[in-house]
Every structure is written in C-alpha cells, then in structure tokens.
Amino acid sequence: MRLILPSPAKINLSLWVKGKRPDGYHELVTVMHTVNLFDVLSFLPSDRLVLSVRGNNSLPLDRSNLIIKACRLFKEKTGINPKVSIKLTKRIPVGAGLGGGSSNAAATLKGLNTIYGNPLSEEELHELAAKLGSDVPFFLKGGLAIAYGRGEKLKFFSPANFEILLVFPGFPCSTAEVYQNLPSIKREVAVEDAERLIISPLINENFSELIDNMENDLEKSESPCVKEVLRVKEKLKEIGLKPLMSGSGSCVFAIIKGEKPDTTPLKKEGWWFKFLSAV
Ligand SMILES: C[C@@](CO)(OP(=O)(O)O)[C@H](O)COP(=O)(O)OP(=O)(O)OC[C@H]1O[C@@H](n2ccc(N)nc2=O)[C@H](O)[C@@H]1O
Ligand SMILES: Nc1ncnc2c1ncn2[C@@H]1O[C@H](COP(=O)(O)OP(=O)(O)O)[C@@H](O)[C@H]1O
C-alpha cells in the first residue's frame, strides 16, 4: 500500500540567541510557523530501502540524506528494517532556512511509524527527531510553536492566519557556518516574551505590532552568506516591505498586510519568490 505525506516548509517569525551552551549549540528562543510550500514523500513497499528524488539533482541519496538518517534511527530504535521505496518530490529550496531537510526527516519518522503499526510513542518519535536536528521535532506536528533550548523544546499554539512573500535568492546558507560566525550574543528573552511580542499580536492580527517586534539575531552573523542575504533584505525594503531572514537563511520573507507589493524588482534580480499562506 502506498503512503503519501506532505512535508511543509517553515519560517521563523523571530529568533533570539541567549548564549552558547557547553555542548556547542546555541540556547535560543524562536517562533516557527509552517507555510503552504511542500515537499512530498511517497512510501511504497520494496525488497530494500531505496530513496529517489525528483526536483533536485544535488541532494545526496546516501546516509547523509536526512531521510536515510531517519530510517536508520527508526531501525536502531525498533529493530524494524524499513523495506520501503521512498520517493521525494523536492520543492522547498535547499539550505534556505525553511527546514526542508528537517521536515523531510520528520515526515519519514511519521511515515515509517504508520507503515509498521505505530511501534513508537509520541515521546519516542520526539526523542528520535531531536537526534536528527534541532528543528526536526517541530515538524512532527507543525503549525505554530515557540521552540527553545537548542530548538527541540516546543510550546504549540493554534495555527494562525497570515500571508507572506517568500524570496529565495538562489544560493544556500550553511546553518553550521552561520552559527559558527555568530558574535557572542546574550539576549534576555524567555518563552513568555515570545508569547507577548509575537504570538499575541499574531493571533490578534495586529500585524503592524507583530512586524515591529520581529527580529532574527542570526542576521548578526559574520558569515559571507548572511552579508549577501542582508542585500536581499534591502531590496525588499525598497518595495515597502519589512523583511526578515528565516532561520539561518538564505530565504527572506515579509508579512503581507492587505495589497500585494510590486514584485518587478525581484524579477529583475532573477530571484525565486512566492506569495504563501500560513498552514
Ligand atoms: C543527526 C546528525 C547529527 O548527529 O547527523 P550526523 O552527525 O550523523 O551527520 C545531524 O547532522 C544533525 O546535526 P545537527 O548539527 O544537530 O543539526 P542542526 O540541529 O540542524 O544544527 C546544525 C548546526 O547548527 C548549529 N546550531 C544549531 C542549532 C542551535 N540551537 N545552535 C547551533 O549552534 C550547530 O553548529 C549545529 O551543528
Ligand atoms: N532530504 C533533504 N532535504 C534537504 N536538505 C537535506 C536533505 N537531506 C540532507 N540535507 C542537507 O541538509 C542541509 C540543510 O538543508 P535544509 O533543511 O534544506 O536547509 P535549512 O536547514 O537551511 O532549512 C543541506 O546541506 C542539505 O544538503
């Protein structure tokens, strides 16, 4: 029997860095929302584990692919050797701060658990997801959440309604490199602050207040990639938007209030862009 699962992208409505942890990760508070830009994973029974990808010919198909990593973790935990052919239709730009790989990993854990009769509890799925990456646990449920710790601790809220313009400038940013080039930042931000500054205006659709409160400390990274992303931000400001880098980049997005802006300057730059909705 074939199982087909959507694998959504996310944006970070804000990301604050509290400091560097002994384990080398950064302590952070961030607000994430999934948007209607999806990869699709299909699972078919097979005599062995096979991964194929459409829509992107540069993704690794070996154990460095987060889908394969998820399969290996599932096998280690359950003893079940996944005999499935997984077809990934890739639409989410890679290395774009949209969590595409993390989303695929979460969809794979959910897909395998469904196929093999739910051997793993929600807690066990979360435990495996947290090993695959800091924002993989969020994608087990998606929607709207405040993530904290290194990003694996979550407080979920009812999904909100808003539109964004998302711009991918055509180059990826490495999450590790962006963090490695981050100056020392010690923001005093707690989950409660994220609720007051972001969740509350979002739920009440006070978009002007929301936009004024949004910030992403990773924009302070000395990474050459982020310097390029800041140029993209300036171009969006020129068309009257108040943009923000998503996660570790390279995508930039802006909340759209009312009428859509003129996107001609973006076309002239040759950038990929889409008007999307929160899901
Ligand atoms: C499952 C893994 C790790 O065991 O595979 P392998 O090691 O087998 O390849 C994956 O790579 C999973 O690696 P991980 O590095 O945790 O992925 P992410 O959570 O996405 O973070 C990427 C990098 O960004 C930085 N990072 C990320 C989150 C955070 N709160 N602080 C950080 O400093 C770290 O340098 C981290 O290494
Ligand atoms: N299934 C996958 N989809 C996307 N990226 C993947 C996948 N498996 C491994 N990767 C690797 O994960 C890294 C980050 O991917 P992605 O999640 O798209 O970026 P970001 O973390 O910026 O949102 C890339 O180096 C990519 O090669």
UniProtKB/TrEMBL annotation:
**Active-site feature positions:** K10, D135
Read off the SUPFAM superfamilies from this record.
Answer: GHMP Kinase, C-terminal domain, Ribosomal protein S5 domain 2-like
Listed EC numbers: 2.7.1.148
The answer, when asked if Nucleus is one of the entry's keywords, is no
Under Gene3D superfamilies, the record lists: 3.30.230.10, GHMP kinase, C-terminal domain (3.30.70.890)
MF annotations from Gene Ontology: 4-(cytidine 5'-diphospho)-2-C-methyl-D-erythritol kinase activity; ATP binding
Keyword set, alphabetical order: ATP-binding, Isoprene biosynthesis, Kinase, Nucleotide-binding, Transferase
| The keyword Nucleotide-binding is assigned to this record | yes
Q: Where is the GHMP kinase C-terminal domain?
A: 202-259
Q: In which pathway does it act?
A: Isoprenoid biosynthesis; isopentenyl diphosphate biosynthesis via DXP pathway; isopentenyl diphosphate from 1-deoxy-D-xylulose 5-phosphate: step 3/6
Positions that bind ATP = P93, V94, G95, A96, G97, L98, G99, G100, G101, S102, S103
Where in this chain does the record put each GHMP kinase N-terminal domain?
65-143
Q: Which chain positions lie within coiled-coil regions? A: none
Taxonomically, which superkingdom? Bacteria
GO biological process terms held by the UniProt record: isopentenyl diphosphate biosynthetic process, methylerythritol 4-phosphate pathway; terpenoid biosynthetic process
Q: Which catalysed reactions does the entry list for this protein?
A: 4-CDP-2-C-methyl-D-erythritol + ATP = 4-CDP-2-C-methyl-D-erythritol 2-phosphate + ADP + H(+)
Q: Where are the transmembrane segments?
A: none
The record's family statement is: Belongs to the GHMP kinase family. IspE subfamily.
The function of this protein is:
Catalyzes the phosphorylation of the position 2 hydroxy group of 4-diphosphocytidyl-2C-methyl-D-erythritol.
Q: What is this protein called?
A: 4-diphosphocytidyl-2-C-methyl-D-erythritol kinase
